[in-house]
Amino acid sequence: MPQEIAGLKFLSNALATPEQLTSSSSSIDGVPTDLETSVRFAGAQLTQSAGILLRLSQDIIAQAIVTFTRFWLGPEGGSLRIYSAKDVSAAALYMTAKLSFQPTSPRSVLNVYTFLLSKEASPLWFVNPRGLPTEPVPEHYHLTEGGYQAQRHILLQIESVILRTLGFNTHVALPHTITLTYLQTLGVASPAVARRAFEHLNSSLLSPQLLYLTHQPNALAVASIYLAARENGVKLVDGEWWEVFDVDREDLGFLVVAMQSMEGFARAESEKWKGRMLPLDTEEVDAEIERRRMLEAGE
Amino acid sequence: MGAPSLERDSNGATRFNGCTSIRDFEFLGKLGEGTFGEVYRARSKRDGSIVALKKILMHNERDGFPITALREIKLLKMLSHTNIMRLKEMSVERSKGEGRKKASMYMVFPYMEHDLSGLLENPAVHFTEAQIKCYLIQLLEGLRYLHGKCILHRDMKAANLLISNRGILQIADFGLARPFDEPPPQPGKGGGEAKRDYTTLVVTRWYRPPELLLQLRRYTSAIDMWGVGCVFGEMFKGKPILAGNSDLNQAQLIFGLVGTPTEENMPGWSALPGCEGVKSFGNRFGNLADVFKDLNPTAISLLTELLKLDWRKRINAMDALKHPYFSTPPLPARPGDLPSFEDSHELDRRRFRGQRAALPPAPAGGSVGMGRNGGWSANSGNRTGAEPRNNAQLPSAARGAKPNVNGNQGNQQRRPIDSWNNESQQTRSRRAGEETSQSLPSRHRDGGLPPKPPASTHQSWTASHGDKGGRDRPYGTGRYGAPDANVDSYVPSYGGGGGRSRERDHGPANPDWRGGPCHDKPYPDYSRDNPPRRRSRSPMYRDRVDRPAYRR
What we know:
Chain B: Residues 25-326 form the Protein kinase domain. Chain B: It is found in: Nucleus. The complex is a heterodimer. Chain A is an all-alpha fold. Chain A folds into two domains: 18-172, Orthogonal Bundle (Cyclin A, domain 1), CATH 1.10.472.10; 176-266, Cyclin-like (Cyclin A, domain 1). Chain A has helices at 18-22, 25-28, 33-53, 58-71, 85-99, 106-116, 145-165, 176-185, 191-204, 211-214, 217-231, 249-260, 262-272, 282-298. The longest helix of chain A is centred in the N-terminal third of the chain and has 21 residues, at 33-53. The relative contact order of chain A is 0.14. Chain B is α+β, with helices and mostly antiparallel strands. Chain B has two domains: 20-113 and 494-517, Phosphorylase Kinase, domain 1 (2-Layer Sandwich); 114-174 and 191-335 and 345-473, Transferase(Phosphotransferase), domain 1. In chain B, 27% of the residues lie in helices and 10% in strands. Chain B contains 16 helices and eleven strands. Chain B has helices at 67-78, 116-121, 129-148, 210-213, 222-237, 247-258, 288-291, 297-306, 317-320, 346-357, 365-368, 383-386, 393-409, 422-437, 461-465, 539-543, and strands spanning 20-21, 25-34, 37-44, 50-56, 89-94, 103-110, 114-115, 151-152, 161-163, 169-171, 178-179. The interface between A and B is large, with 53 and 53 residues.
């Protein structure tokens, strides 16, 4: 959809309420907060990887990740003990692609997810901690016809659940294009800054602080530019230029710190789950909760 | 929140909450049904407002939630204009109890009492010229907004124009709408130039512009303006002015009215693929001035501008609004000054329809002959046999209704037509059908709707639906229903029901006015889309409404 469709409304997003941020469906169902954060992080990465394998453009992938993230939000959102993160990831990607100029088929989506979720063949560290096999075995990631039928059914069911949970608000405004506009406005010609700003924007999709759900695109754009310029030693104009883009110093500061912390967070996550699979479906989540309970009881 | 807020709409309701529960609505009756879904009139328990609930059917959806519905919802949520139908919210019905096996989704719209087609069909309603101008201005304002936002409606027709008792006209049905990639129209420049191809499988035939009939793929917002011209003429004539019974016949009717195409009046026309392979239409001058000889010169001038063969020169909405027609007496009425009519329901509409069917020339059928599609004339009443894939309900409604309806009509107060009329819904049924036949004409209107042309008359749909045209409907799935639901059941069968005599009253009071099943069942079954629920949790928990999701 062209952004000009209804002016400001389409450059902006629905944001999370404080209530939604303090309590989630999963936590009500007894999922520890740190586990929820980990699963969401892994699910977002799964979505990103699947989008790349499906050759979808990044704006579709980013929208899908935001939709995926929104789904779990708040006490009215989805619970990790009811809905499997991997299914929600697939359905969010499928639905977002369907609405875009690059629709993709359920079969393509499911083929990719079968591969990415294969405990033997997946390149994802949180699915296949042992790493990529030297000799790929196609049987490990082959989607059987029966498996396809069953998975497709789930895919379409979850699509409806997502739509319902989000009240059919499929619109996601992204900061990427306005970031380029802002860079031009600021007279920054360095491609390195633009690239770095995009890197920050794309990593922020995985943020445990749900930056895309708490801040509007203009704020994300400004923070990514600020950070990218500083990292590249590019001097921006004097004065509080972010105010021109309706971002105040406080928000900017918060976002810059949050974006900077992404790397450390990702490292900590992979450290935390080292050698173990991250639970991406309800059974694994249940098992993980049970494992933690046993550990506690054992002490 | 005093200041305009992104998170609140104009009514202070949160813009971004989940779906409301259908239990927030008290069902008052069914307004129509069809493959697109069913439409109910209902009262909101929260604020008492009357709404129209359009249920989205999803059976047999190969690709999940229908892309057309999804796109329509997304588009409608982006638009905000007095003369564009407003999607209030989405509502979900969940079956009671654990498991929530069935869930249905509804689009919630403010209730509008009439649609233009219905009003025109009402023999008791006669438009004054001031009234026509008032509606036309609103239509043009809506289109100026829409085209200014780079959106093509692609299904302009009287039946898609809803009218409230306060005289407000709204453009409805965005099921075929899509954004266009070119800049919005500029003053004096018509619809501009298209830079890319779009599918030609759009617009109900009677309102389809000549360039589409000739298979121009790079069309512009000018296609909607042609429809405005058709609607404009229809308001004077009281019936569609160009009711072709096939695409070719449609082209011939158009060229009969405005003249055959030449390189002067339609530059580039001979390079187009042509209509059903026909590229030669003889050499005639139009008879528009003759057909509309009762109109004053400024009206004819505007009509001529709208019905221009050359899509590049066809007037755009912003220029049409400045046409002298609107500044010469009689001046346009104000919406609030227009007479209001008692609102009515689909069954009342059908009563008119039955009556009308007895009137002389039916829109498409009889006189011109039904040609290869045969049997669609309202008067001939032979549609059932001729077109078995279309639900027999319609023909039986049209035919069966006639005697009774006419019999009752005499002492019956005339009611104008309901907004959630057949016509609006036709588009949907048409669309649902389109998925199989790949054709677009609307059907079933008043018994005289143009039949669906055979698929072969169009270029390969599959070829176009992958990349270019396919963007319009990526998977070609049903709009609200599946291809096999190519059944236009929104016109209920009178034949089957013993409740016909009760139709004096509105549907709501007599939900069983037709013999068909599940009419008054506001919570119909719906078996889909609930994921395996592995864990129990109080369903009530999730049924809370007005949740503040996505509000800051």
